[in-house]
Prior knowledge:
Blueprint: H1 11-16, H2 19-28, H3 33-41
Amino acid sequence: MYLLQKSLFSFEQWLEIEPSERLELFFSALDLQPYAAKLRNSSPQGAKTYQS
């Protein structure tokens, strides 16, 4: 199975972006909300809860 994904930036656009801004633009284009919600809702594996 092959999936075609639309590119976020053309190679030429990527070269024009300042190196210090590339990571911010890349991560702002991703939808990480579902993953962040899953991380917040899951308890750490192996963590022990202590009651005082």
